[in-house]
Write a sequence for this structure.
């Protein structure tokens, strides 16, 4: 965005970050400079967050400035301690002088790990990849904290290309 002689802030829509942990925001940016006589003026980019619509902006990033002719990539971590269900990001462009070239931001991606997802159970018996002639074998696996159900699939193809049997027994 062109910041001719000004500061501009672009704000994202609201995000619910309570459903994820280890949240990062990734984006590409380009900031420019312009030389006027002996002085070089640098445009700058700052990234902020706030934890509610009426909250105050908090600086999340270092200040990005320089003179780039190619896109740069940044990844910023969002502390799990500040995640809310009413979360916003803002990108602020500050022109170095009335003759700046502007700041560009693109490909914004927010990543994280879904919170509260149970782990993977481990088969206890029978041994994995074993075979039996028992027509009613008993399967047992370790309990996983937070799991509300389990599904077992049996196939004679190790790639599970066409599952022969699927069942979700009571926990």
């Amino acid at each position: 965005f062109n910041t001719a002689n000004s500061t501009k802030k672009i704000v994202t829509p609201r995000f619910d970050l309570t459903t994820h942990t280890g949240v990062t925001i990734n984006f590409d940016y380009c900031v420019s400079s312009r030389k006027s006589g002996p002085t070089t003026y640098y445009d700058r980019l700052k990234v902020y967050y706030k934890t509610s619509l009426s909250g105050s902006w908090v600086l999340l990033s270092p200040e990005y400035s320089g003179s780039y002719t190619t896109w740069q990539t940044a990844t910023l971590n969002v502390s799990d301690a500040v995640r809310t269900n009413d979360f916003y990001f803002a990108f602020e462009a500050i022109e170095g002088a009335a003759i700046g070239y502007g700041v560009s931001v693109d490909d914004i991606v927010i990543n994280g790990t879904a919170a509260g997802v149970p782990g993977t159970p481990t088969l206890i018996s029978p041994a994995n990849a074993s075979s039996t002639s028992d027509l009613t074998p008993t399967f047992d696996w370790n309990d996983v904290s937070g799991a509300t159900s389990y599904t077992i699939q049996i196939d004679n193809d190790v790639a599970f290309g066409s599952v022969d049997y699927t069942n979700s027994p009571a926990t």
Remarks:
- The mean pLDDT is 86.
